[in-house]
Amino acid sequence: MFFKDVVGQHEIKKRLIRSVQEQRISHAQLFSGQAGTGKLAMALAYAQFISCRNRGENDSCGVCPSCHKYQKLAHPDLHFVFPVFNSPKLNKPVSDDFLPQWRSKVLASPYFELSDWLEYIDAGNAQGLIYERESDSILRKLNLKSFEAEYKVMIIWLPEKMHSACSNKLLKMIEEPPNKTLFLLITENEEEVIGTIRSRAQLVKFPFIDEASLTDALINQGDIDPATIPDAVHLASGSYIRALSSLSPGDDEKFYFLKFQEMMRFAYKPEVKELVGWADEMAKIGRDKQKAFFAAALRLVREYFVSNMKRKELVYMTPEEKEWGKRFAPFINERNIVPFTKEFELGIKHIGMNGNPRIIFLDTALRMARLIKR
What we know:
By secondary structure, the protein is of the alpha/beta class. It is built from 17 helices and five strands. The model has no long low-confidence stretch (mean pLDDT 89).
């Protein structure tokens, strides 16, 4: 991965390049920002630049043996940790057991979310976690001498998914790392990373990607109708993942919108039997998808509330969402927007706490029937 391939984030690129040139590489760095802002892509470009044997002024050379191995994610001094799931086919799996799939996914595009990754590895209803046993693998790898490069690089994707016991074991190594070891932790929610690790890592905050960079990136895709790009950039709200998704909505996005429509229709009538069936169906999808549905519902009620203000520049919806909102938006108003928001936030919290999904969704659906009439 090259810095030039990372969408936007020019100031962060300059900062990281300067740290290498001035030999001021912090041994532990926490890349924090929303999904789609390029944290994983930047970490890969940074690691490749550090290990490059003939680096240029602003990027790695791309032709030395180190760069060739990094471009295949096969460098012996590059290590990955990421959420996995307990598979019946594997005995106590760790990240290395899924490394071929990880390489394939990242090489296709380093811009993806946890739900995309879990779907890619057929996790089903399982949540993605970094288990306690992963710490033994990390300690073993990093206590070895580097094979080729000056630095051993450990990229930990979504450390907020790390078991507390694993985090505590990792903490000692971050405090007293082996010589020439670099930790790059990539989080979408830094508050969920344990405080002792946060306090020992240099924070690098990733802002939303600027519209000019998003536009250039979409144009460079080559197979996109230029007329659709301005709307996609507006809808993206600074996320490259969302920009691509708005141009070609995936099955998950369509599913979440359909289920939101069903919930609100059944709640309005109200049809309790249908709401029970709806909750049963939602209980069967994976927990990460369940949380993603509540997040999508949060976004939709916010957009429909704002659309009532007749400020088009503040509304971020697809044409299908706008069309349906012509009839639905009036039901979202100042009397119920806050309770709607709290219910969906509570749903995310309870699913994350391993609550019974059938009860959670049924409770939410029944509350919708009361709130939508306000």
